[in-house]
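Q: Could you write out the predicted structure for this multi-component system? I'm mainly interested in how the pieces pack against one another.
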Amino acid sequence: MTKVSTVPRPNSLVSILAGAALLLAALAVGVITVSQVAQGPADSSLNVLRRWCPFILQGFMLNILMSVIAMILATISGVVLGFMQISHLAIVRQPARFVTHVFRNSPWLVILFAIMLMVPFEITLPYFGLVMIPGWVKATIGFTLPVMANIAEILRGAVASIPTGQWESAESLAFSRMQTMRHVILPQCVRRMLPSWMNWFALLTLMTPIAAILGVNEALGNTQAAMEAAGSSPDLLIPFYLFLMCIFFIFIYPVSVWTKRLERRFSTT
Amino acid sequence: MSTEYAVSWSPDQPIIDIRGLHKSFGSFEVLKGIDLSVHQGEVICIIGPSGSGKSTLIRTINGLTPINKGEIFVEGQLITGPKVDKLALRRKVGMVFQQYNLFPHRTVLDNVMMAPRLVLKEPKAEVRERARALLAKVRLAEKEDHFPGELSGGQQQRVAIARSLCMRPDMMLFDEVTAALDPETVKEVLNTIKELATEGMTCVLVTHEMGFAREIADRVIFTDGGRIVEMGPPAQIFSDPQDTRTKEFLSQVL
């Protein structure tokens, strides 16, 4: 309620910089060590990395695309599922609970394999004819399901965490259940849900490389392909994987810092 | 179904009429047959030991707590049947709680304006004017842009009263509204209620403030063990209680 921090706290900015610096330093050390060892007649591994960098980054774009689309789908379906879970009608509530529990408690990789094998690789649509379903689309669906179930659970938990007095006072002011939900309960839930929601976005993005196992050309798959194309030298392993970690880190770290800050802010109000 | 009132209720009939009310939570019977009539403009204070069903009783009047047996009429309308329009009932009956229950994400003015805007669909300018007048009445005009969390308990409780009044209810229920307050802020809330009572608002209060009950009540009701033990004007209840349970309770709290 009160404006706790409108300006970024200096310590979080420092920690962003410190984290980034630490990682870049590690990368530099790794690269230098490796390139010194590999000073041969052939290319230095740093040069190889530089040459393949756009290819890896292009794969990384697919990771971001998959995580963003999956997050949007998971949020929409998760909110619907969450509402179904708190319905007064058992026929709506029970299936929603079941679906939530199934997807919350299954390994992501198993869900991913199941989707990969169950969804056909091409379908016939009216007007469009035969449409191919690329692997990354299937992987995105596979990532959506567990996150959806967790968002449903976050919503259910947030609604349950609102004191009953809020419901009672809204009811005694003649609010309908829908009005209470929309104007009293949900606005208070959004604040409570935001940190966990962002946390799941970070987790989801970090899980996207498992799509490589299924042959999706995302960052990890492209990194491995690049190393293979460059002769599969063991010297390439450290710089290439460090680089990969680095780009994920640079993308995700600000999200997690921001999440921490929101959590702190909400816990004090 | 027993006698129903004529469709048009007239103010000389009870505004609240409770007959043979029973309420159980599981196997525990909280209310064991309550009969109570309240007339328009009356101020009723319900006192009694905790667990005697006072709060449950008051919460049945606006349908927050469903009942097991008996009938309640509000302005001549049966409100305890299966197909009762609870929203229509709650437009007539305002309620204030022990824990204020303001909406923490909205400003004080928004808190007061929300229900008339959303429920009664009244025009914004009109509601705002009324809300400001009510905030002035509870002496919080300068706090309208604050959030509830920035106010003291007593101030929050006065906002809650203004919020309820903005619906222009015909009667008000107060459920131990000063029980959670610091002693120094109790008085400001009680003064607000006193003003309201003086203006002729029908009030039913559950309270532990015996001095206040004696001062403003037209009738004091002493409940114990889910029944009304004794009922009468404050002078009689406080100075000359008849039942031994009333005597015992009063000797403990006075």
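A: Regarding packing and overall arrangement: The first strand of chain B starts at residue 16 and ends at 25.
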